[in-house]
Automatic annotation (TrEMBL):
One protein family per Pfam: Methyltransf_25
GO MF assignments: methyltransferase activity
GO terms (BP aspect): methylation
InterPro entries: Methyltransf_25, SAM-dependent_MTases_sf
Keywords, ordered alphabetically: Methyltransferase, Transferase
Domain Methyltransferase: 46-138
Entry superkingdom: Bacteria
Keyword Methyltransferase carried by entry: yes
Protein name as catalogued: Methyltransferase domain-containing protein
Length: 256
């Protein structure tokens, strides 16, 4: 059993924010916010796993009423340093079960976070919980990477995903269980031959796009769009990630 509070602790919360860089860079964040604001279609939105508020705060500032759900107390504390609960309410809990109101027009889950749920059952429950939050016709948006199993060399169980000054990202993959563990290795690039390095590991369960679509069908959704990025580029067999937009077909209240 993974201790999520320990995994997403204060160190993770503080290091996640990189203003103006990485996932906080304007060219990354602004297209996501514009697209989500359009998909909200004048209604309110719920962000599953809102974290430190990277997207939620920006969407709130764009004029969309946003609520959040967050499991990590450390991430929530960091968010509260930036915005108060009267402006952006957040429910502490799991995105598989916690409820942040009903009748919303948009629920969204960004930056591969659905893969933090480590079983297929939990991932299906995440879709069902999204449906609980939505009015009929509402949308659930999932941003997720495509498993790059073609990069695995024969006889090897891992890939090097990043190699930069002071940082290596190595993913190890168990194809049988669809489990992937990211190993984040940070070191001082100025010291040749140093034995000192810091290693952090994050576990995931990867999901194929077709499997994700089936999860949506089980919860009453149909796939409306699949793009290669937030700007709406065409998704192809070579795309490393996707933004998938699901539309709710039936009223979940009728099944309760």
């Amino acid at each position: 059993m993974i201790d999520q509070q320990r995994l997403w602790d204060h160190e993770a919360a503080q290091s996640y924010d990189t203003p103006g860089q990485g996932v906080f860079a304007p060219e990354v964040l602004e297209p996501a916010v514009r697209t989500l604001a359009r998909l909200a279609d004048g209604g309110s939105a719920v962000e599953f796993a809102i974290g430190t508020g990277r997207v939620g705060i920006a969407l709130h500032e764009a004029g969309v009423g946003v609520r959040g759900i967050e499991l990590s107390r450390a991430m929530l504390e960091r968010l509260r340093e930036k915005i108060g609960p009267e402006e952006l309410p957040v429910v502490e809990g799991s995105m598989t079960t916690a409820l942040a109101g009903i009748g919303h027009t948009l629920v969204y889950l960004v930056f591969n976070t659905i893969s933090n749920l480590l079983t297929q059952e939990e991932q299906v429950q995440c879709f069902r919980n999204a449906a609980r939050h939505l009015a009929p016709g509402g949308r659930f948006v999932v941003e997720l990477w495509v498993p790059q199993l073609r990069a695995l060399a024969p006889g090897h169980g891992g890939t090097v995903e990043a190699s930069e000054d002071g940082y290596l990202l190595v993913d190890t993959i168990d194809i049988h269980s669809q489990r992937l563990t990211s190993h984040h290795i940070r070191f001082d690039p100025r010291v040749d031959g140093s034995r000192e390095a810091r290693i952090g590991r994050t576990p995931h369960r990867y999901i194929w796009p077709s499997e994700l679509d089936l999860m949506g069908q089980l919860a009453g959704f149909e796939l409306e769009h699949r793009w290669a990025d937030w700007a709406g580029a065409e998704f192809t067999a070579e795309s490393p990630s996707h933004v998938s937009v699901y539309r709710l077909l039936r009223d979940p209240a009728a099944e309760r």
